[in-house]
Design a protein that fits this description.
Blueprint: H1 7-25, H2 27-39, H3 42-64
């Protein structure tokens, strides 16, 4: 796998920008979502995290080819 110099850092910066945009544009929605997440059992949160990881990896593969 060939990784461009600074690619990982660029990706982390983009995540920060997207997270910041969500907090800036819809802070109350984000608060409601966080409150709902606190009510979920850890197993469900892990499943949601695993699905997000899988979708992200699939998306990266589709963008690379």
């Amino acid at each position: 796998m060939i990784v461009q110099r600074g690619g990982f850092g660029t990706a982390l910066c983009l995540v920060a920008v997207i997270e910041g945009l969500i907090l800036f544009a819809a802070p109350r929605g984000w608060q409601r979502m966080a409150a709902e997440a606190q009510k979920m059992p850890p197993q469900r949160l892990r499943l949601v995290g695993a699905v997000a990881i899988a979708l992200g990896l699939i998306g990266l593969q589709l963008l690379r080819f």
